[in-house]
Amino acid sequence: MTPSLSLEVRDVHGTSTASVALDETLFGIQPNVPVLHQVVTAQLAAARSGTQSTKTRAEVSGGGRKPFKQKGTGRARQGSERAPHFTGGGVALGPKPRSYRQRTPRKMIQLALRSALSDRASEGKVMVVSSWPWETPSTKEARAALDTLGLDGKVLVVLDRAQEEARKSFRNLPGIQLLLVGELNAYDILCNDWIVFTPDTLPGDSIVESVVAPVGDSPAAEAGDDAVTAGAAPEAAVAAAEDDVDEDDEVDQDDEDDEEAGDE
Question: Which of 10, 134, 169, 246 is a good FRET partner for 260, with 20 to 30 A between their CA atoms?
Fold first, then answer.
């Protein structure tokens, strides 16, 4: 059974404030594991510095003369003491500075990102928080908010550039990774247990649907109750209106009788 893509939007105190429908094209696809593997491998390869280097026999010092004469010693002939099999010699087939970057098509990168998001959504590990309301950075309040929301393990918090106080609040907490919404990638999603968004950082066409209110307290519920009550007994309402009209007619008739008696 496909899990629901509708989530509750909670505040930092754990109270439901709204609901949001996640974009099915991002959070509701079947994860493509081979593409995920290839893209993650390419991303890790691109992160390598590629600065390791060894010297060949042409680059080490020494070796300008023949170690011993060609014949008569009973030993194997040698031309240089800087050959790879000598101590202090060059390295055969050693690493040299190079780039490990792999060419990855853009569509594969996008598919891997959608697959990673869908994998976390299928496990129920995506959460949407209404906002981070701190006016000043507070690591203590950030830790308390994570505990209240039940976010354990490694947590990826997706922010935008305007949420500077939230970034400073989370940055010193262990197990918390911060990313800007434009930096979201498959590898960092897979490395964390939870992904936390705000409505402003949700990717795709995710839509906040409605405000969650207690049953019976919302104006719409009260209006619905009144409508049901009014429609339950239409005949009684009509009868009451007719009684009001009859009473008005009787009052008008009494007034006319009093005026005729005064004229006589």
Answer: 246
